[in-house]
Task: structure prediction
Amino acid sequence: MIRAKTTLLAAAAALLPGLLSAEQGITDDAVTFAQVAALEGPAAALGQGMRTGMMAAFEEANSNGGVHGRQIVLDSINDGYEPDLSVQHVQSVIAGNGHIGLIGAVGTPTSAATQPVATAAGMPFIGPFTGAGFLRKAEHGNVYNVRATYFAETEAWIQHLVDNKGMQKVALLYQDDGFGRVGLAGVTAALESRGMSLVASGTYTRNTVAVKKALISIRKAKPDAVVMVGAYKPVAEFIRMSRKLKFNPTFVNISFVGAEALAAELGEDGEGVIISQVVPFPWDASVPVVAQYQNALSAVAPDAAPSFVTLEGYLTGRLAIKGLEAAGKDLTRESFMDAMAGLRHLDFGGVEMEFGPGDNQGMDDVFLTHITSDGGFAPIQMGGDS
Result:
C-alpha cells in the first residue's frame, strides 16, 4: 500500500509538476512525513520500533488537536536495510512531493546513501537511527540528530572495560560496511588514546548471519572482551556460538543492535551482555517524558512493551513536533526547515536537547546497560559495578 502510494505520487509528479509542487505533504488539516527504513529483514525490529515510537508521539499530538490544526501522518516504506533500495524510495518520495520531510531512517549505510540525495533536494532528514559522524555536519542544513555519536558510545565502552575493569585484550566484531567501519574507527581511537590496540577483529556481511569465520579468528586471540558493531541477528548468532564453544569474554554491543531484539534472540545466552544506550531507561516513569511516552505508546500499541528503540522514536517524533509548532500555521517545507534551524534548548521533561549554529545533535548522553537473567536490563554505573 505505502510503496504503491509513493510510486503513484512519483508518476503524478512527472505529469502534473505544477499541481504537486505546492503540496509538500501539507494540506489545511494534515501534514505528512515519510520514513524510509528497514521494516523487514535482520534490522526490522529497529525500523518497526522507530515507527511505533514516532506514531506514539504523533498520535499523542493528534489527540490534542494536532499542530496548528493539522493532524500528523506518517508513511513508512521498507528499504530492507539495503542502500540501493533506500535511495530508490527516497528519490520517489522527493519526486512525489507528497511529504514535508524524511524521518526515522535506520542505519549508517542507508543514511550514507540517502542523506546526500535529501540534502541536495532540500528535504528535511530528521532523527536517523545511527550515530555516524558524517550526519553531524551541521552545514548539511537539513539533518537533525537526536542521539549521541558512535564515537561517544565506543569511548564509553573502552572507559568501562579498560579504565574501570582493567581489561587489556579487546577484540572487535563488526559489520563489513560503513556502519561497521565507523565503529572500528571509534574503538581504535579509544584504544590508541590509552596506548593500546585491538588484539583481533572479524567481520560479517550486512544482512547475513555468517559470523563463524570471524568467531574462529577472534577466539584464537583469547580476548577479555569482544565489542560488537552489528545488527541483532548476526550478533546473537556470534554470542550463541561462542557460548557453545565455552568462549565467554565480556560481550559489548552498540545501541544500534536493538537491546530488546538482541535479548529476545539470545534468551538465556544473553545474561551479562552489555549494550550501550543513547536514551534513558524506557521503564523509568519517574522521568516525566518517559511517563508521557509510556502512556502514548499504550494508546497506539497496547500490546507493545516499552523499549529503548521506541523511546528514541518517540523523542524523534517530539522533536519534529517542536519544529512544526515553531513553523506556525502558514506551513511550508521551507518554513519548517527554518524553524528546525532556529531550535535551541528543548526540555521534554527529564530529557533535554540542545541545538545551535554548528550543532545539529540534540543529545550527547551514553548509558551502559546489561541483560539480566530474566531477559531484562539493568544499568551499569561508569564507576564499574552494575
About this structure: The chain is about 45% helix and 15% strand. Residues 1-22 have pLDDT under 50 and may be disordered. Residues 164 and 383 are 6 Å apart (CA to CA).
